[in-house]
Amino acid sequence: NAGVTQTPKFQVLKTGQSMTLQCAQDMNHEYMSWYRQDPGMGLRLIHYSVGAGITDQGEVPNGYNVSRSTTEDFPLRLLSAAPSQTSVYFCASSFLTGSNSEAFFGQGTRLTVV
Amino acid sequence: QQQVKQSPQSLIVQKGGISIINCAYENTAFDYFPWYQQFPGKGPALLIAIRPDVSEKKEGRFTISFNKSAKQFSLHIMDSQPGDSATYFCAATFSGSARQLTFGSGTQLTVLP
Question: Could you give the CA distance from residue A82 to residue A88 in angstroms, rounded to a whole number?
Answer without folding.
Answer: 14
